[in-house]
């Protein structure tokens, strides 16, 4: 098993891959990535909290034209995971309007992105239909 | 008490492909046009707000070297697609502060032939997965975690409205585009003046569902400029200048206040609604008083949400508003009779002043075949992602 690194540091790998958000200790607002202060209340203390792995599709677009190197079409989306919105792709589904519907139930999934020159594997995430 | 402010002169170039003109050529054309339209010269201008998003810095000074170096302050501004309105805000603020009695605002862009526009940065590819930036990303996330491309971002914004209120499907968004392409056939300044059927629009190249190519703002070259003047100074000018002056009843700039998800998908709704509220209050008018509206249809999916954000309809009622025929040029609330960004074009920094040119032209009774009869009050709106909303309410001189 190669060494794995997550695509972004708010994806936690391991037996139970999940996302983590920075939660402002003063007002509870959630952010992804390093923040100097809370955009909502200007607080400077954050705690890491787990983001639910289940969610529903708040909005999407099926992108057909993208920068070189990006495989199209893909389903760009915002997923509502128990009140925390996450930017991701909807994966493991045919990228057509007939198969993707607003409000559909989704769950987090992870997948390998390839090995680098040192044999390290990057792992990305998306959301797949939860049926 | 702050001075009242009037548009004395205003001009825009034809939008389209101008391969033989550089940004300063285009900006100079609009600037000299606006000065001539106002019957004044660079000698009278006390401040310049200048916007050119994609060019090298120092655009305002490059313009001065070609139209008149008078030593006045230049503010080079950038607020994405709200750059033109921001340039105008600078000139308006300087007059309201009593620092000058006349100002110039200019916006220009050369975008013809530009491909897909995206927000965000692209870190270089490396041979090892190395975490970079605030997210510790080991690879570019655009396309892997959602999209940063404009058509996709604004597609999601429109789809989200449909999810909340219902009724907004691909066909509805395409019909908004159909309206704007139809409107543009009467506008000689528009980059594209071609009627397109609903079928043609829906069957065109899909960029980011549900936005097909004609449902996206047209990349083109163009410039627009406005000369603004204080009420006190206007009183000293000729009868003709006073007759054609257009009152700036409201000039507002907002950014997006924090809300859940606003750093995940840009929220273009609240900051527009906030700007609209401020503007209606400043101007002492309501949306029902507007005779025409030029709003930011960067994509057909964006226009729908702004019917609601600008309170042209009740909250949640944008689909019904469109279905009623209200935003067509013969409707009760004409929206984008210029053809909008989809058909007139969107040279980014020029748009915020170009849509004001459209409103002024109707308020002056000079819009020819596309004239909205009896137009007295208009609203111009732009949104730049990041975000910024520029909003102006304009009124015919009494």
Task: Give a structural overview.
The complex is a heterodimer of chains A (131) and B (398). With 131 residues, chain A is mostly beta strands. Chain A has one domain (4-129). Chain A is 0% helix and 50% strand. Chain A contains no helices and ten strands. In chain A, the strands form two sheets. In chain A, strands 1-10-9-6-7-8 form a six-stranded mixed beta sheet, with no helix packed on it. In chain A, β9 (105-115) and β10 (121-129) form a beta hairpin. The mean pLDDT of chain A is 96. Chain B has two domains: 5-115 and 220-247, Peroxisomal Thiolase, Chain A, domain 1 (3-Layer(aba) Sandwich); 150-215 and 250-396, Peroxisomal Thiolase, Chain A, domain 1 (3-Layer(aba) Sandwich). Helix content of chain B is 34%, strand content 18%. In chain B, the strands form two sheets. A nine-stranded mixed beta sheet of chain B has the order 3-2-4-7-1-8-11-10-9, sandwiched between helices. Chain B is globular. The mean pLDDT of chain B is 96. At the A-B interface, β4, β6, β7, β8 and β10 of A face α4 and β5 of B.
